[in-house]
Prior knowledge:
Elements: E1 2-16, E2 20-22, E3 25-27, E4 31-33, H1 41-53, H2 59-62, H3 75-88, E5 91-101, H4 111-122, E6 129-134, H5 140-143, E7 147-158
Parallel strand pairs: 5-6
Antiparallel strand pairs: 1-4, 1-7, 2-3, 5-7
Helix pairs in contact: 1-3, 3-4
The structure holds magnesium ion.
Amino acid sequence: MNYRTGIGYDIHRLVKGRTLILAGVQIAYARGLLGHSDADVLTHAVIDALLGAAGLPDIGEQFPDTDPRYRGASSIKLLAQVKTMLRRRGYAIVSVDTVIVAQEPPLSAYKGAMIAALSRALGVPRDAVGVKAKTNEGLDATGSKRAIASYAVALLKKSSSKGGR
Ligand code: MG
């Protein structure tokens, strides 16, 4: 059996006039994350964990923020593209686990929806996806509500019969 792990991290600034999107889910909050795409920081971390596990170039190379095609792009749709990319190379997604670091807003009410959206995009059961939300105890950029960060790890299984890199 050939298993591979990957890690992803991302952070985006919180600004007025943007909608907060995490795992493709719209979150009720006075501010949103700044970015070229929808700035879905959680999905970006998941994408990088998956790409890293597969030994592929990172999100910035796959979906450049200089490319007008990705302006306002739905990151959860890009994640579904990454899933297809991995399948073509013979990788099955075993599990993805994540941590969101956000002082505000409270996210526990959205966890189920975020897990459902990620599991749909990844084509895996819900119990193969973890979403945890932490504050940063008032410390640093996330703790002072200037940003939201996310971490992700992914486990892939490579089938011996298919694909190569
Ligand atoms: Mg990002």
